[in-house]
Amino acid sequence: RAQTLALRELDFVAAARLSGNGTARIARRELLPALAAPLITYSAILVPADIVAEASLSFLGVGVKPPTPSWGQMLSGAQTWFRADPAYVLLPAGLLFVTVLAFTVLGDAVRTALDPREGSRLGIAT
Q: Which residues does 89 contact at the CB level (< 8 Å), separation at least 6?
């Protein structure tokens, strides 16, 4: 929302408004292309947070119900077996860590690739 409000005050939106374009056309032709990069970046960064939230809620017992697999349920169920075989806890915890780390790195790479101030990293002259 803040990005949209900031874009609304820029010169290219005022020029489109002065050329007689309607609000819907300005939103579709001018604002949406400018908002695509921040929306994609936000979505890519939101995935790891959602994975951790789901795993945490499932670990506490308020997430998805037992026939559905969840890392939180695996970690919760593995607590009783930790002394006998630590792999029961370490494997789901490690995979959860690697998955969240991979999505975080992916989100950061998407942000870097779509950031116009860092276009030189892609070989694009700015």
A: 75, 78, 79, 81, 82
CA distances from 84 to 78, 87, 89, 91, 94 (A): 10, 9, 11, 14, 18
Count the domains in the chain.
1
Task: Tell me which residue range forms the domain holding 85.
Answer: 2-122
Q: In the chain, which stretches have pLDDT less than 50? A: 120, 124-126
Q: Taking the model in full, what pTM does it have?
A: 0.67
Q: 55: burial class by Cβ within 10 Å (0-12, 13-18, 19+)? A: buried
> What one-character DSSP code corresponds to residue 62?
-
**Triad 88, 51, 46: Cα angle to 5°:** 155
Closest CA to 78 of 67, 64, 93, 62: 93
Percent of all residues in the chain with a pLDDT value above 90, rounded to a whole number: 18
